[in-house]
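Collaboration report, partner site 2.

Our partner group contributed sequences for two proteins of shared interest, and the home lab folded both. The records are reproduced in the order in which they were received, starting with the first partner submission.
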Amino acid sequence: MQGFGELDEYNMNETKNIQIRINEIRSLQTAKISHFQYSKTAKIPFKVHEFIEIMNCRMLDFCEAADSLMKNNHVIPSLALIRALIENAAIGFRVASAIKNSLKSNELIDNFDSMISSLTFGTGYASEFKATSILTHLDKLDKTYKGIKMGYEALCEFVHPNWDGVQGSYSILNENEKNTEVKKVITPEHQIYKWVEDTFIITIEIYLDYTIKIKDDLPAFSLLCEKQFSKK
């Protein structure tokens, strides 16, 4: 299993502690958001602030759940959560990139207000804000973190009821004995488990990488939003 393929630069093969990474996300949590922490006139900074704080809570919830499943030998069910973590990372990266490019251009780009509103309120069913396909966000993420889409697609093979996720994960064919064992095949002792851990850790690291950057950029971004607001 190749997993992220080209992500060697992110020390995929190093022994790391998942709990340390989860604690880093936990340290970002807040119980309440002040609507005017970054600006009293522009609404966009609050939308970004709210988005990232709520996403931190979602990320922590999913990370703790995936970690618990893995520790209790529910490896295949944990993959659905790890795949969702990559989706979370992809959506948040879209916001981080738009902030970075806006600051670089000294003006709001990509119709920023509509973009953040769509990410916050978008749904797959008929509504005022239509959700963008997650594959679009993954494509953008993959341009910076090369190979992550490959890892996502590999996880999909186990999350979907394909061969990898069903027969390959829960049965062993013994042709000579003319029988099939029905049991959990993917356990912490299986060779793929290290890849699962690495994928989990790398996804958290990617998320932390740009999430902390968003918080650092929010004061300057808020000033830019206020400048744009004053021109209207």
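Second partner submission, folded after the first:
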Amino acid sequence: MDDKKRIEVTFFGHNVPFLYSIVAKLTDEEKKIRQEKFLGEMERSISKKRYILTTLVDDSNLELIEINKELMKRTDYVKDCIKNNTAYHPENEHHFHRILAYTEAALFQLKALCEIIKTYLFDFYEYYLKKSKVDCLSDLAKKAIDLAWIEDLGNLRNDLLHNYSSWIFLEETDSAFTFGLKLPHKFKLKSWQKDTVTVDDLNGFYSEFSISFNKIADLINEKIIEKRAQES
């Protein structure tokens, strides 16, 4: 029998103001529904995954700083690699492995976060508003909340999770080097059709998420306010 003692760790996650504003507007009956229907757990999951995503992005940037320090020390070698189109052999390979791991993990967390938010939104409509998924999709369209980008993210995430790993390439900028992910181009089951994932691609996903998240938060709060007005 396993009788090992466990210590629970205090919950820590991102401060997500819109979740607090939602709960503040709920009636006692709705707060009861929130606990019974797992909505509170989803709110905590959204908070936690946002915190993890931010941490992974920050850690990737820290590794990139270390990589650029190495590149600055080996300027002549870097110039030879560019001139002769040859591969760069790192002195400190762990920085490259870490940035790869953090970036892939960030993509996984972002996709999971999108799915939890969608589930939360549909459940919000069902349990709080007594409306269907169709009603929710209609409101998303009216508010110009386009979630089509999540399919691209899902294709990339599924490839990296199930089909292959990526590797890193370095790309020169005005003042330093940034990075991207190199992907195989002949794999027949490939869903993400490009051969690379650039920082622009990554920033595009993060930007789309931020825009969509804020619009969904506004929609949810607007719907609660509408419901309170109808009840008064």
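Feedback sent to the partner group on the second submission included the following. Residues 76 and 155 are 39 Å apart (CA to CA). The helical segments are 17-25, 28-36, 39-73, 75-84, 93-127, 133-142, 149-163, 199-231.
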